[in-house]
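Schema walkthrough. Field components (list of strings):
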Amino acid sequence: MTGLPNQPTQPNSPKPVPAWLVIFALAGLLGFLGFLAVGMKKMTSPPLVIGDVVPDFSLTTFDGEVFNTSELRGKVILVNFWASWCPACKDEAAFLEQVWREYQSAGDVLFLGVDYVDTEKEALAYLEKFGITYPNGPDLRTQISQIFRVRAVPETYLIGKDGKLASLKIGPFASADEIRQMLDRELME
Amino acid sequence: MIANLGFGVLVITLVLSLYAIGAAFYGFKQKSSVMVESARLAALLTFPLLTIVSISLIILLTTGRFEYAYVFRVTSTNMPLYLKITALWGGQAGSLLFWCWLLSGFAFAAAMWVNKKEREILPWMTIVTMFTLGFFLILVLFMENPFERIWIFQTGDVVQSLFQPQFSIPAYPGEGMGLNPLLRHPGMVVHPPMLYLGFTAFVIPFGFAVSALITGRTDDNWIKASRKWSLTAWLFLSIGLVLGSRWAYDVLGWGGYWGWDPVEIAAFMPWLTGTAYLHSVMIQERRGIFKRWNVALIILTFCLVIFGTFLTRSGVLSSVHAFSQSAIGPLFFIFISIMFAGSLGLLLLRWGSLTTEGTIKSFFSRESLFLFNNLLFMAIFLICLTGVLFPLFSEIFTGQKVTVGPPFYKSATGPLFGALLLLMGIVPLSAWGSSTARNLGKEVWKPAVFSMLLPIGLLFAGMRQWGAVLALWLVSLVVIITLYDYARSVWIMAKTNHEGIWTAFNRLTSRNRRRYGGYIIHLGVVLMALGIIGIEFFQTQTQGTVKKGDSLQLAGYTLTYEDLNFDKTKVGIQVTQASISLSRNGKLLGHVYPSLEFYSESEQRVTIPGVRSTLEDDLYVILVDWLPVSAEGVTFKVFHNPLINWFWIGSIVFAIGALAALWPDRVKKPSHLSAGER
Amino acid sequence: MKGATRFSLGLLILIITAFSAQSALAQSGQPVSDDDVNEVAKGLYCPVCENISLDVCPTPACTQWRELIRDKLSLGWSKKQIEDYFVQQYGDRVLAVPPKNGINRLIYVIPPVVIIGGIVLVFIMIQRGKKLFIPAESAVFNKHSELSKSYLKKIEQDLRKEDES
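Field assembly_structure (string):
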């Protein structure tokens, strides 16, 4: 915060503080506190609240297909973060696949499975095991999860037709109905 | 009932602390000693009151009152009594209350024992301690209240709050979640209290410095009056850090004791500046220089205590030790802004009157070497600060998280720690004032040459790790010079006074506890350095999966896996323990029993290493995993940690030295007191 | 300081050569040992748990990553290749220290700047102090520079000083 403040001075003659020191110290203090405030806000508050426009991102699936959210306006997109090492993800995997099969044909809903910091071999085995058919791909360099500030998997975000965040679910879905309700609410609007 | 008592007394304590601030300020302005005395009494009273609050919470914790959210979260029926008590600091809310309690203890000490001579500073000392206490009490009362109950709505939603929300009924869970398994260790009984004692005790020297600045009494008095307090705080902090390392060594299964984790560093930073302060005050007392620097250092130290608490509790940083997310961030931020801005403002206000009476006259004088010591401590501190905040910085500017791990700290601070050892070696032989390079060289060369014997011997023995050879030379230099200087002083003393060596030794040590206590501390530090050198340069490890009867080899040891036992007697914990026999050159040395504890409630695994510890080395075995069906193939990880025990032994020597320096002096004749030096 | 850097550089080269020798072994069909895996894992950090390196991390996810390292090693990948793969998959935070690019360079610049800046500051201070210093004092000091005499005096001064404080 302060530099070595011990400039030699003439003994016993109280000198006023040099202006440069005051300016330097105050600038340092404000800079430091500002940095902390920005950092704290970034770390502790969610980057997106419901109604915010979700920044565009693209997901390259394990099969090499590319999905770009900027080209998917007009569709309701369900973004599900999961990982093969996550036990809670396994609880909801079947529900997600079930609901996806029901809504897939209508064409106005898209599911994107984002595989959060995972190993490819185990991830593919997981998809195989739960028979998941909707597009899934790795979250390279955690770029997608950082948009949503994912803390732990599973987390699910619903992007509305207007590209805004419509609703979100932290933790696993308890039933297929819960997912249906989430989708229906958005499709109704 | 008990919770209501605790909560009620908590409110009263907050009101009292606010009153003390007001009364002390009024008393200071109006020169009313009655008001100052009233403020002092109020400050005194906070300690017994917070004792009542803490005991109330302990009663709730030990009697299994799980309807209280905090009790529910940190205890369970199957925990032993001592863990139920220590659960007081096992979670955010309780540990904040514990902080307040210790802080009020030091507020009590300050109000009780601040010398009559220093009555002028009493109002400001009261304001500083009560302001800090008041803030933490507000956090406890309004943000993290340990007396909140659990309520359940008809919809099934569960909330925690102090008062019953509408349409809800109180919940009475039959069992709690239990303390985080990592904290269920005897080390956790003493580590946090020591650390917190160290943290909170720094409020007293800080209070002295702030009072001196405000009242304009910027002579050396505040330093003399606060010397023992700062030394006490520093000792507690040091012990707390060492105990934390011991806990990490015993529980975390890293094979090491210090992981350069942000939370560790947050506690280490005030230690660094505090250590710099303890050294640089000696120059001010002796030479009347560095006045500004010393005030700045002690203020910085306490600010860093608060800052570290902020970092680890506000959710700014995430780390293994960090408390879970909480809402105290913004309020805490306001508090540290006030503290930092207030301290800096005061410092600038009195900048002119903190003039120095002398200057440094030579690069090779003792004061100059002390200055270099301060430079090194500050550099290490700034590197630590950079490392801790850099991930945050990087995330703000690039959006990418980065890790600043041990390699950064080791390469950046390693040479600086080496330089500190060098200074520690030569400073005892340096002279105050206008010493020259020749004077210093004349004193140092003989022991320096002598100390070369060790590294030369090591080179002949075939050691080719140059960093280690250099570090071990520095260690031998410090030991030799410290002992040489001590012995020479005793010898001269005995000769001039015609007395026995032992008498001379005792008289010398007891008449200058601070200096010779310091020497003992330095010897403790070099012993600790031995342990650090051992682990940094010579640690080896291996990992392997073995069948029953098969062996692993490491550093000349043979480890044979003999058996695997499952202990199902503990409720909620499945313990798997392996038995391994150790031998070297065909000679059986004994057994180690590494184990793996699985906590079914939290699905958490804790590895308890099996360690064979000798003065020469530790063999540290971790049970990594086993194949569940047959328990045939078991994976072990083995660390060979040479010299590590010297780290713990050194820390005990260190504490003895600090106690020697702290030991109350014999009562002196008053005539001596008045004789000023300059 | 220079020596230490050179030393650590040397050590690094040693480790790298030792390691490439090992991976060559692995390539030749031998199974990858746990020690080989740990050697790489030590330098990589768990992407989900903060500040824990992969070789000591106890979570199931980390077990998977260790297996991934083992697979890559058995394919003959070098340590550097594996690190690059991890960065590309999981981001910069898997590295023990920030990569030397963009704003991250700062962290490698700050420590030397702090140290050199501090040394310069201390030198300036002492130089200024020496200018104010009256040379006569040194003569007084030198008169007593006979070793044990001045030393005894120093101790006596120290003791007197302590009694007074």
